[in-house]
Each structure stands twice: as C-alpha cells, then as structure tokens.
Amino acid sequence: MSKNNSAAAENPASRFPVIRNIEATAIPRWLAAGWRDCRAAGLASLFYGCCFAVAGWLMYFVFAKAYALFAGLTTGFLLVGPFLAIGLYDLSRRMERGEAPRLAPTLAAWRSNLPNVGLFAALLTIVLLIWARASMVVFALFFTGGLPGFADVVHGVLTFEQPEFSLVYFAVGGFFAAFVFAIGAISLPLMFDRKTDAITAAIASLVVCGRNPGPMLLWAGSIALVVGIGFATLFIGLIIATPLVGHATWHAYRELVADDECASATTP
What is the pTM of this model? Predict the structure, then answer.
C-alpha cells in the first residue's frame, strides 16, 4: 500500500463510518443524556434555545398575516434545526472530553468543516423553500372558507374538520420531513466530528435509517413531540426543547456510529 493510500486509510474523514444496530430502548437513554448535558452546560445551552425561540417569534411577526406561508416556514424551521444545533453538538463533545462547556468557542463550530456543512445547509434551504411553496399550493387548492386565521389553520389541521385538506397537508409535509430526517439524522454531527464530506454523511444517515427503521421512526416522532411542545407554548418552550433535542442527537450519533478505534478493530 502506498504512503498516500495509507494516510487516507488512517483519516477518519476518508472512510465510510461503521453503523451500529440499536433498539428502541436507546431513545430514552439519548433523551436522558441530552437532559444531563442541558443541565451541565447551563447558560451556554440555554443561549441556543433562546436563539431558536427568537427565530420562532420573528417568523410569527413577519408572517402573521400570511398564514399559509407561515405554516410552511414553521414546519421548515424543524427541517433546518440540525444545522442550527451544531453549537450544541460542540458543547456535548467538549463535556464528553472533560472540558468546560464554554459558549464562545462553540459559536463558530460550523467553521471546522465549512464547505460540506455549507453544502448540506444549502440543500436543507432548498427543501425548505420548496416545502414553503408546496404548503401555499395545498392551502390554495384544499382549504375552504376564505382566508384563514392562524387559529383556523391549527383547528383545521388538528381536528380534521376539513379532512381532504388535512390529509393532503400531512402527506406532503410528511414526505418532506421524512426525506430530510433520513439524510440528516446523523449527517451534521458526523460532518462536525469527523470532517466527513456531505455526500458520505448523507449516505451514512440513510444507512442508519435503513438498518434501524423502527427505532429511527420512533426517534423522529420523539423529536417532533418535544419540539412540537415548544411550538405549542408560543415558542417559549423551545428554550428548553431545542437544546434537549440537540444534545440528545449528539448522543444518538455517538451510539449509532462506531468510534474510530472500534471501526479499525473490526476492519479486516
């Protein structure tokens, strides 16, 4: 083997990560670990939660009159959440290494693999814009009764008072959410931690979901439930919900992807 090939084999970013199989019982463990990190990081963790909450309030005030667009952007907010949580991944990794959970060094965590993180962020942005547009089309075609108010939208979606609208909205939104979750379940923690390229990280995330469909489906539902509570409290709950999910996602990544030493030991 040449010197160049040997160096490539030793570089974690150059090889496909080893994916573990997990059980659904891992999910409470991830959430518990995430909560411990929230408490240990303190104000540093809450800072990111406040950023999520402020973003939610800004969207509400800017798009308060455009209910169909606001609905799409609110859902899209969930889609780009993993990118915004890179600072939380950095906090968890620092505490994992026994370092103090300081906020300042994590603010530029995305710079460690900027080209690939930027590429993935661009993909999420494109999906967000397409979903926002699709949401408006669904409202225009299926929501009856004139221009809806925000309460009308929430009532119509949750009560199935307009079943055709609710079914189409959930079907279209579910497609986008499933796609983004499948390619993003571990992508950004992997890119951040090992400097992996965006394509390899997205494929690894697909492999994780393919090997663990049941647990990952439950994990997606758990994320939606926790963040949904944050939205239901007029975004105030996001101050706690988003750091909890961000830290828990880091621990999910750690359990789903074998570390370099384990990967080397199992490679023939």
Answer: 0.83
Instruction: Evaluate whether 109 touches 90 at the Cβ level (below 8 Å).
Output: yes
Tell me the pLDDT tens digit for each residue of 85-123: 899 999 999 999 999 998 988 988 878 888 898 888 888
3-state secondary structure the chain: CCHHHHHHHHCHHHCCCCECCCCCCHHHHHHHHHHHHHHHHCHHHHHHHHHHHHHHHHHHHHCCCCHHHHHHHHHHHHHCHHHHCHHHHHHHHHHHCCCCCCCHHHCCHHHHHHHHHHHHHHHHHHHHHHHHHHHHHHHHHHCCCCCCCHHHHHHHHHHCCCHHHHHHHHHHHHHHHHHHHHHHCCHHHHHHHHCCCHHHHHHHHHHHHHHCHHHHHHHHHHHHHHHHHHHHCCCCCHHHHHHHHHHHHHHHHHHHECCHHHHHHHCC
107 against 212, higher pLDDT:
212
- In this prediction, residues 167-187 reach a mean pLDDT of 88
